Amino acid sequence: MKVPSPPHVRRPLAKRRVMWEVVAALVPAAIFGVWYFGPADTLPQLTATIVGAVVAQAVVEGLRHRPITIMDGAPWVTGLILGMSLPPGLNPLIALAGGAVATGVLKAFVTTSTGRSLLNPAMGARVLIVSEFLIPATTFSVDGVSTATPLASSSSPGYLDLFIGRRIGSIGETTAILLLAGGAYLLWRGIIRWHLPVAYLVGVAATSVILGRDPLFDLLAGASIMTAFFIATDPTTSPATVAGRVGFGFGTAGIATFIRITTLFPTGEALAIVVGNIAAPFIDRVVTNRVYGTPKWRERLSS
Hints:
The protein has about 300 residues and is mostly helical. It has one domain (about 15-285): Ammonium transporter fold (Orthogonal Bundle). It has helices spanning about 15-35, 40-65, 75-85, 90-110, 120-130, 135, 160-165, 175-190, 195-210, 215-220, 225-230, 240-265, 270-285, 295-300, and strands at about 140, 145. β1 and β2 (about 145) form a beta hairpin. α3 packs across α4 and α9 runs antiparallel to α11. The longest helix is centred in the first third of the chain and has 25 residues, at about 40-65. The two termini are about 35 Å apart.
């Protein structure tokens, strides 16, 4: 009997399939954003981030004499998530530069000693865009009229509007129902596991309650749902163990919610994910799976 080397999996889960299924899960929310905010204010940014991410990865791989892997879907996911996290009407050149930095710099060169990505490239690029272009990257508008996001507005939309997506926000973060449907699809297909998304949403609700706010409103008003299912679950920048992922999700959610509520800064989720990504390798060193057959007390002593 021929036994292949580990790790052993029950069924193939190729990177290409995973990435393109994530794209499929994101597309409905992206289409809604294009329809609601208008193609003129959304399609240029979405196209620019995807083109920037795909071309930059191809160029870097070519310069490093490595196989061109742009059709495995990874740069498309990065570009789409970055584009969906940007406000409508942003200069497409800024979006193009953000997509290029995401895969051409952050993904390619900002890595750990084992070659693992240190930062989620889309969120790292989002933070850089906000730091360099604060006003245009935090100005939200519909039909050319600028207004505040629900978390910063004195007159907030109702729950139904928040759930459907009839509110101000980034291009792809507004429609809770389509993002939840996309997240449920990824869970059903086995692309992600439930522990981290649930921990993230619980963390948002718990922090909201501690700060004396309406947890349901805070869950629907920001980018919490998109972050929980499509960003925090990035397998290359989140902890490896279930316990580590639960702590990662709960902690980053607390940081993100605290930033959004106390500072009204519209990129709290991106900052929180970057902080969590930096902490992930340390979480993996502290929170490890017990070796089969090893008593728990002996594992504690050895650590």
